[in-house]
Amino acid sequence: MFNKRVKVKDLLASEPTGQEVTVMGWVRTFRNNQFIALNDGSTNNNLQIVVELGMLDENTLKRITTGASLKVTGKAVPSLGKGQKMDINATSLEILGDSDAEKFPLQPKKHSLEFLREIAHLRFRTNTFGSVFRVRHALAFAVHKFFNEKGFVYMHTPIVTASDAEGAGEMFRVTTLPFDNPPRNEDGTINFKEDFFGRSTNLTVSGQLEGELAATAFSEIYTFGPTFRAENSNTARHLAEFWMIEPEMAFCDIEDNQNLAEEFIKYLIRHVMEHNREDLEFLSQRLAEEEKQLPQDKRSEMGLIEKLEFVINNDFERITYTEAIDILLQSPAYKKKKFQYEVKWGIDMQSEHERYLVEKHFKKPVIVTGYPKEIKAFYMRQNDDGKTVAAMDILAPGIGEIVGGSQREERLDKLTERMKEMHIPAEELWWYLDTRRYGTVPHAGFGLGFERMVLFVTGMTNIRDVIAFPRTPKNAEF
Ligand code: 4AD
Ligand code: MG
Fold first, then answer.
1. For residue 156, with 0-12 CB atoms within 10 Å meaning exposed, 13-18 middle and 19 or more buried, which class applies?
2. What is the per-residue DSSP string for 128-183?
3. Ligand 1 pocket check: which of 203, 401, 460, 462 to mutate, most ligand atoms within 8 Å of Cβ?
4. Quick check: 236 pLDDT over 90?
5. What's the Cα-to-Cα distance from 376 to each of 347, 379, 447, 460, 463, rounded to whole Å?
6. Which phi and psi angles does 381 have, rounded to 5°?
7. pLDDT tens digits for 302-316?
8. Ligand 1 within 6 A of 238 CB?
């Protein structure tokens, strides 16, 4: 019954020559008991269905309400009205599912993004979220396309893990032990030997360590999976559950790593520019309208599409951490005490500092390398100066950090020494250290935060609006 259905997007791309078609979708609006705007999620453009007066009985007409689902068969003809190229002159119309107009929360008017977050199960049915999630899909597809074309192997790294890749300790515990009366050791601590995996386990914060194992066999791999962080950051850039893409390359140094990351980001943008033009134009318009309410100095200097074009057509700026700190110290913002957080060599740059660099100073994406070792993970390759590591962060306008990565410490002695200093238990990571024992190679990799990339490309401003069902502190609805 359903296989003869045509997608609205395909239909609108074809010529209306009186052909008979069957379409299915949800009613966006119904005017004058005659014109139905039908949407099936393939595009934001609705299909206009024309119901001839007298064709349907009174009762059926009443059931054509916003949100109801329909199956319509009719003839595709050039539209007489303005605003669309074709109409479907219905010959039969079936209501697949009613939608009580009194109760349906989505009215054909503008709703705030905050309100739509509360009805995230229905927000896909709006133009904004239609565009956002089609773009998100296209970006995910392009990720695989990019790495496949380069001969990288896609690794599925574990989601439940006993190691803490970033050493930051902000992990969600996975356990089947009873909370009220967990088994205890003699000293009163919880006995995880009794737990499901016979040890303490968590949700992964990153697939990198396992990715490195695979890279030292396949040369080039990538992961693309969910990661979890129990940091209590209630910001527009943080999720407790987010998706990350982590390529890992053997025979690769920090410069190759930067080149790949830049090429990758540009490739993703180009793919969406080529395949999702209509959605980008809609989102660009949406952003422009939203920004009209902001004071002049808070508005973006470029429109969304203009910004994306600019990014793909220009080199990213590349600076060292030390240069970044110098720029901040010389900045008018610093001199006028506009920064809330302290600026000096050694700080972990705050979002206000990163945004100053990309939005005010360089006005383009910036790759910062050579961070102080104290603020970075144990696995980063130590530079000869004894103070910095071969780390790289990519900062994007409007987003801040979008990529974090590094060349890895491939020298066993240097690595174990650093682990000792940072109290990372070497016994637990015996398998990781084995890669440095057996055929170690210079290697590097990075992690791109997928939702931050979707934010950048869609021009949305809150990360909760680019993932279907956001998980944030005190929120796991749906
Ligand atoms: O900089 P991070 O913590 O790096 C890693 O996890 C490394 N293991 C990556 C690697 O070298 N293979 O995270 C990488 C990126 C960040 O730059 C940011 O874009 C994103 O992941 N990210 C988050 N996105 C949303 N919500 C959060 N809480 C995020 N934390 C990091
Ligand atoms: Mg980082």
1. exposed
2. HHHHHHHHHHHHHHHHHHHHHHTT-EE----SEESS-TTS-----EE--S-SSS--
3. 401
4. yes
5. 11, 9, 14, 29, 24
6. -70, 130
7. 999 999 999 999 999
8. yes
Greatest alpha-carbon span in the chain: 85
CA of 243 relative to ligand 1 center, distance in Å: 9
* Beta-strand pair 35-39/47-50: antiparallel
Question: Which residue CA neighbors atom 30 of ligand 1 most closely?
Answer: 238
Find the 81 Cα to ligand 1 centroid distance in Å. 50
Counting atoms of ligand 1 from 1, which one is nearest the CA of 168?
A: 3
Q: What angle do CA 456, 255, 409 make, to 5 degrees?
A: 105
Torsions phi, psi for 33 (to 5 deg): 55, 25
Q: Whose CA is nearest to atom 28 of ligand 1?
A: 238
- From CA 143, how far away is CA 272, in angstroms rounded? 11
69-78/20-31 β-pairing? antiparallel
> Using a 6 Å cutoff on CB, does residue 408 contact ligand 1?
no
d(CA 405, CA 246): 9
Let me know: does 414 contact 389? Beta carbons within 8 Å: no
Asked whether 130 lines ligand 1 (CB < 6 A), one says no
Please state the φ and ψ torsions of residue 471, each to the nearest 5 degrees: -110, 115
> Residue type at 437?
R
**H or E stretch covering 224:** strand 220-228
pTM (2 d.p.): 0.97
Instruction: Please say whether the beta carbons of 50 and 63 come within 8 A.
Output: no
Q: How far apart are the first and last CA of the chain?
A: 31
Beta pairing, strands 220-228 & 153-154: parallel
pLDDT, tens digit, 9 for 90 and up, residues 75-113: 999 998 888 899 999 999 999 999 999 999 998 889 999
Q: Which residues contact 293 (CB under 8 A, 6 or more apart)?
A: none
